[in-house]
Amino acid sequence: MKFAHLRLSGFKSFVEPTELLIKDGLTGIVGPNGCGKSNLVEALTWVMGETSARNLRGGAMDDVIFAGTTSRPPRNAAEVTLGLDNRERKAPASYNDSADLDITRRIRRDTGSDYRINGKVVRARDVQLLFADLATGAHSTAIVSQGRVGALINAKPKERRHLLEEAAGISGLHSRRHEAELR
Ligand code: ATP
Ligand code: MG
């Protein structure tokens, strides 16, 4: 399953609506310090259901909303949409009637986040499970942030197993079992 595009609005430094087309062959994003490269990657993990503000270099989740500059007022909401190319029907069965999947997360100051898949309101859990089943997501091994390689080397066996399960695409099953046991 391929990422097709990423749309941002009011997210961190991307105050104006911005669309990044993720075409075959895209291998890197370059730019001067502070231009927003890391913010783009964080937008990707955020829309996939990241729940830790610290992992997004913030103190609270609404820190992802454009905070304003000397010349621009702050925003009250941020929205990110990740478009997935599902033409090969690799998505879990419940989403497979659609060739394109648009996953949207929106946050407003003080009211928190809501999520949609192709315009239909879903739970954060549904988005997190979708990406866990696709063996990707906010905590997957596909996204390696600074310092992570060193942390992996020093990880305990249990933490390392967690990463292997994520890579194997079975962590969605584990969290469903955990949910079932709680019921
Ligand atoms: P480097 O090459 O140093 O890693 P980078 O391209 O990864 O830089 P980012 O860290 O993505 O840059 O962007 C940092 C910029 O984003 C800073 O200028 C910071 O002020 C801005 N920024 C972060 N959060 C917000 C926010 N909530 N509102 C407005 N601007 C923000
Ligand atoms: Mg950076």
TrEMBL record:
Binding site for ATP: 32-39
Top-level taxon in the UniProt lineage: Bacteria
Compartment(s): Cytoplasm
Transmembrane residue ranges: none
Family the UniProt entry places it in: Belongs to the SMC family.
Domain-related comment: Contains large globular domains required for ATP hydrolysis at each terminus and a third globular domain forming a flexible hinge near the middle of the molecule. These domains are separated by coiled-coil structures.
Its biological purpose: Required for chromosome condensation and partitioning.
Self-association and partners: Homodimer.
Protein name: Chromosome partition protein Smc
Organism: Sneathiella chungangensis
Originating gene: smc
